[in-house]
Request: fold
Amino acid sequence: ALDESGQEFTDIHYEKSVGEGIAKITINRPERRNAFGPHTIKELMRAFNDARDDSSIGAIILTGKGTKAFCSGGDQALRTSDGYTDFESFGRLNVLDLQVQIRRLPKPVIAMVAGYAVGGGHVLHMVCDLTIAAENAIFGQTGAKVGSFDAGYGSSIMSRLVGPKKAKEMWFLSRFYNAYEAEKMGLVNAVVKLENLELETVKWCREILRNSPTAIRVLKSALNAVDDGHAGLQDLGGNATYIFYGTEEANEGKRAFMERRSPDYSKFPRRP
Ligand code: 2NE
Reply:
């Protein structure tokens, strides 16, 4: 069972399991098929930040409230000529920041999809590291129908996942695909009965949590590095530095500086 974290949110639920290492973030706008506005995204980013900073958390589930939708993308009622607006005078596309945050987060993020994952909601599940789908899940890109598109991760990651021909089909035709079709296309990792969705997703999390957190951290970064270009290399490079800081060799440099002497690296082998 996942326990409430005590944080106050309006558009999402954020829960952390006690002692299990799992956080669960739920978009809570079922009356709009879990469409997001700028405020929803801000709350999601806060929750993801918290899960990142909490060292007891090793896997994060992203899902939607109810069984009808994971997420139906940007709330079209909030759409303006400059993005999406709720309480502010300027529109935003801050979902792009959330996509980057999920991508850069050094812990696995698992999309748990029941019902529709469409439009910007489909992109969200694609930027997650893994996707577990219920049999009732439906996937698709509706952008071209409603006069929108995601020419960033929504295009490039999709092309990686399903190949350029299928990606063009998804975007150009705005078709919907059922869970088994999505599995065949490489969009999802597993399809399970709706009633087993949470159980199965938690099982995947537990399997991840049995493994080395550092290995997983570096693997996520490595598996994203090529597609993320300089930013991907920067992330992977940061992991190398973080691991190097734990070595005697790196400490010799710091110690020498603090002790106002020259560093002595002579005892460290120049490995083949
Ligand atoms: C999701 C889908 C296929 C569900 O269909 P259905 O028949 O199950 O439900 P229904 O009746 O369409 O929706 C239920 C209520 O949710 C609202 C509807 O307007 C309806 O409201 P009421 O009539 O009950 O008042 N609703 C659903 N999705 C909404 C949305 N995205 N925004 C605002 N209200 C929404 C069907 O509802 C559907 O096709 N939804 C639209 C999907 C869509 O086109 N999303 C936007 C794509 S663009 C995008 O997300 C994006 C981007 O391309 C780039 C950057 C950022 C965002």
About this structure: The first strand starts at residue 3 and ends at 4. The two ends are 50 Å apart (CA to CA).
